[in-house]
Write a structure and sequence with these properties.
homodimer, TIM Barrel, 8-stranded parallel β-barrel, Orotidine 5'-phosphate decarboxylase (chains A, B), decarboxylase (chains A, B), OMPdeCOase_dom (chains A, B)
Chain lengths: 271, 271
């Protein structure tokens, strides 16, 4: 999916909501555990109930790997279900990968070609030649960890190198990499006040923003400092939506939570 | 496996060789492609031919994920084969994971409990709460990316924060994390001259050292600057060993290459 197509979807749906599909078998409704593939059945129900409210879905691969082969199969079925039934949805493999060149190429192949995700999250620590193999895939997007939503972000990301923070070096340096037009960035909603300075460095890039809701980030602040003429934001909510209820009404409860966020987004977009 | 047990194995085998099981179906002998599980058959033959020469094996997960379900199954069979037949071998999941707390816990569960690896490589960019969930597993080891072997290491890792390089902050800060005794570090052989200063910060920790051979690193230099009284080094070679031949003699050719490195290690250990 191209960035232009993503922007069109955001304007059409009046939503820049991304729903995180982080499926924990201990948190989903018990009756689903009796089905053949509880992870996929959960995802399918959530997608069916919320696809008109969201422009993106983001499975975090950790939650699938934790269940071994069955988890990996559920991930495959989920992305196939999305690509088959909702090709207009932007898909994000939240995998936070990154390795030396030939190895990053294997990861890129896995997520962009075999699983056919539109994008994948990538860690920047190993630098240029660990990220460029992802950027080489045309029509695909690489979402680089810049300033993450967790407390540990202050361990290294906000430390000062020369005259600026590490994450700003990541932003600036990444712009010099080949095919950098395929880059997006992860910026946590818990760091909304940093967004003004981030926009000075990457005025147009899409930002994937986790941390609204459960982690304490505020939607209005994120939009105030981070929104561009083309929106430039995907706001992710995972637990706040998918675990709204653990009963048989879980999908409609998820839709209700998604609708709440989506209506706030509509108000912001129409303001 | 405890660090003491690892040191005992190194002294017994007179080897601190780690063999990287980075299986690319385009590089393995063609006749293996006709078997039911070419990746596992390749690994099994390499392990059978080299297990007396190496103390550790390191599958890089990218090469398994690239083949989807079949790749993941081959990874499971490989670690099971190692744990069943060679429980004295130290196993490393080269996964370079790292995420916010609850998500890192899922990765730790996947690699330490379900797959039963002794250790996993983890990226430091997201800081303390992204690494501590791995450190919480007793008897398991977390191998933190410090100074990697690739050119991109100079993009961020060697930049100066205040008075020292980012990777030194990673080393120093990680020592303050809970259960930091379970830490090891990745330091590329291509950066051997940095090892003296690294040893000032982490005098005892084991270092996993990739980059000898194909990437140009030198074994003697690594040992000169990095070896401790308890050795403290695992030297990894992947392509240089496992792709020594692409014919039917691939396993014996791999053993020959492994034996060359192991005999150099023996000489160093006996010097």
């Amino acid at each position: 999916m191209t960035t232009t197509q993503l922007i069109t979807q955001i304007r059409k749906k009046k939503s820049f909501l991304c729903i995180g599909l982080d499926v924990d078998l201990q948190k989903i409704p018990k009756f689903l555990l009796e089905t053949d593939d509880p992870i996929f059945e959960f995802n399918k129900a959530i997608i069916d109930a919320t696809h008109h409210l969201a422009v993106a879905y983001k499975p975090n691969t950790a939650f699938y790997e934790a269940y071994g082969i069955k988890g990996w199969q559920a991930l495959e079925k989920t992305i196939q279900y999305l690509n088959t039934n909702h090709p207009e949805i932007f898909t994000i493999a939240d995998a936070k990968r990154g390795d030396i060149g030939n190895t990053s190429s294997m990861y890129a192949k896995a997520f962009f070609e075999d699983l056919a995700f539109d994008s994948v999250t990538v860690a920047p620590y190993m630098g240029k030649d660990s990220v460029e193999p992802f950027l080489a895939f045309q029509g695909k997007h690489t979402i680089l960890l810049a300033l993450t939503s967790n407390q540990g972000a202050f361990d290294f990301q906000t430390k000062i190198i020369a005259d600026k923070e590490v994450y700003k070096h990541v932003l600036e340096t990444s712009k010099t990499w080949k095919n950098s037009e395929n880059l997006m960035y992860v910026v946590g909603a818990t760091k909304a006040s940093f967004l003004g300075e981030i926009r000075e460095i990457v005025p147009e890039s899409f930002l994937l923003v986790p941390g609204v809701g459960a982690q304490g980030g505020n939607l209005q602040d994120v939009c105030k400092y981070g929104m561009t003429d083309n929106i430039g934001l995907l706001i992710n909510s995972s637990r706040g939506i998918i675990y709204a209820s653990t009963e048989v009404d879980f999908a409609s409860a998820a839709a209700k939570k998604a609708a709440e966020l989506q209506s706030q987004m509509t108000a912001i977009l129409e303001a």
